[in-house]
């Protein structure tokens, strides 16, 4: 796949990512209104009343308008996790990455460049794409008499860097959404908590007997949003760290393979 095709595919993925949040928002609003807000979850069959005892759907509904926002963030996290899992799995290729790198290094030790390229073709994935590109450059440099050895080694190293820069964005794409939601989820939960406490203290400030229903709704809104926001942020943070760790491992494999190719050229050519 050439660079133009990669950029086009990346553009399609970016367009898809831009649709995730609006679609998640629509789904979250529907769930909030028609599932959580179903009258059967509330006293007197009316969602304006307090939730039935132990009915968590009704309790979450009483969290207020912040709930569908937090649900949007959670649905976005789920979507990005699934998308990144597929993308990183595809980036690893068909077989074990560590075994693949060792096999390529074995071919390089015997200067079997064509066999190493065949191994890359069988493996596929981001790591294999980078190493294959460097191996192709290796072959072209063998017949190039216009450059000295040091220039050829520098060219190989540059090929490693350029090929890596083309593959890494596809692996890291959308992780910024997880990183953002890690902070945003907590902040939105805190906002819901503040709004709920304002409602609760407003009920206590009424002249005469406090409005117990408004007080209960305010406290419920505060607690539900706190739990929802922290849970969403924690979930996003966990998978963000998982994915970045996996990408770091792939990057290390690319660096190891590229270094081995450069060293092989240095050892086998004068």
Account of the 3D structure:
The chain is mostly helical and 270 residues long. It has one domain (79-270). 81% of the residues lie in helices and 0% in strands. It has nine helices and no strands. Helix 3 (66-92) packs across helix 6 (125-142). It is rod-shaped and about 90 Å long. The two termini are 33 Å apart.
What's this model, at a glance?
Helices cover 81% and strands 0% of the residues. It has nine helices and no strands.
Q: How many domain units?
A: 1
Q: How would you state the average pLDDT, rounded?
A: 84
Helix-strand pattern: HHHHHHHHH
Strand content: under 5%
User: In terms of structural class, how would the helical and strand content be classed?
Assistant: mainly alpha
Could you describe the largest sheet, including whether it forms a barrel? none
Distance between the termini: 33 Å
Spans of at least 5 consecutive residues with low confidence: 1-12
Give the radius of gyration: 28 Å
What spatial form do the alpha-carbon principal axes imply?
rod-shaped
Helix coverage percent: over 70%
Number of DSSP E strands: 0
Oligomer: single chain
Number of helices: 9
Supply the key terms.
rod-shaped; mainly alpha; 0% strand; 270 residues; 81% helix; disordered N terminus; 9 helices
How is this fold's topology laid out?
Elements: H1 3-36, H2 56-61, H3 66-92, H4 97-109, H5 113-123, H6 125-142, H7 149-172, H8 175-204, H9 212-268
Helix pairs in contact: 1-3, 3-6, 3-8, 3-9, 4-5, 4-9, 5-6, 6-7, 6-9, 7-9, 8-9
